[in-house]
Amino acid sequence: MRHHKLITSFIAAFQGIAFAVCRERNMRFHLVAAVLVLAASFYFRVERWELLFVLTAVFLVLITEMINTALEKAVDLSTRKYNDLAHAAKNVAAGAVLFAALFALAVAWLVFAGRLIALW
Known about the structure:
- By secondary structure, the chain is mainly alpha-helical.
- The chain has a single domain, classed as Helix Hairpins.
- The protein has 4 helices and no strands.
- It has helices at residues 2-23, 25-43, 48-78, 84-119.
């Protein structure tokens, strides 16, 4: 019985990921960026410790985007009318994604800038 619950939990998690990817433009953008950054990591043969920072940044952005999506859907479900607190909740969640994306850009700059300049 526990095995069945575990499988059901994984299926639900993958359905959540699929929902975010299929219905959220920003999630698709972040996913494409993640693939490109990971491809660049392998192309430039970044060190393992650098790859750890790249992976951390990539997953931080994807996770915060999914939390942002979940919060937006929950707020939309709770009220259809404009509400200052609902608006603030959505903005704060979007701000978390922005912070994660800025962190990712900083990591990308530190890891890839020198390598890209060396190509020219």
